[in-house]
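pasting for ref
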Amino acid sequence: MFSEVKLTINLSSYSFEEWLDFIFYHPNDSSEWHFEDKWAYKCDSHLLIDYMTKLFMSSDKLLIKEYTPEDIDQGFWFITGTNGFMWALLDDDVQFEIRKRCIDSIKYLFSDLFSKYEIGTSGYMWWDSVFSYCTFKNKSIFSELEIFKAIFQTIKEIFVQNSEVSKKSSEHGIKHILNIAKSLDNKIVKNLILKEIERSGIKP
C-alpha cells in the first residue's frame, strides 16, 4: 500500500476500466514498476473489494485481448504483493460477506485464467504472496480466523480443479501456511490451522 511514501494517486476516483489499466497497462515500465514511488496510491476498501471481485470473476474476458501476458503476470504480482490490494480483505469496515465473496471469486481466476493461459509465475505463487503480504494495521490473515477459513476453503476448491497449475499453487500455498502456522505463538490458532490442513487432504 506504499505506507512509507506520500500517497499520490487516488484510485477511488477511477472507473473499473481505468483501474484495470493502472494494474495491467505498463508497456514502457520495468517489470517491477509497482515498487516505484510514482505509483503510490490510496483507495477506498469497498471499491477495491468490488473491483477485485469483478476482475476475478471474469479475468479471461477482461484481460487476454487487452494486455500482454507479461503485463498480466506483473499485474497479479502487484495485486498480491506488499504494495498491492489484498489488505482490503482484512478491513472490517467492509461487510464480511462482501469480502468473503471476493475470496470465493479467486477460484474463477484460477479456472478461467491461470489454468488456461501461460502468463508467468503469479498463479503458482499466488497464495505464497497473499499469506506473506496481506496485512492491514495490526491484522494478518492468521489473526482473522473467519478470513483464514474463507481463504482455506477457496484453496481446497481450487485444488480439485482439473488443472496442474491449480493443484500446484494450492499445494505450495498449503506449504506456506504450514510453515507460518508452526511459528505462531497462539497455540489455539496454530492447532486450528494444523487441523484444517490435515483434514484437507492436501499434502504440501
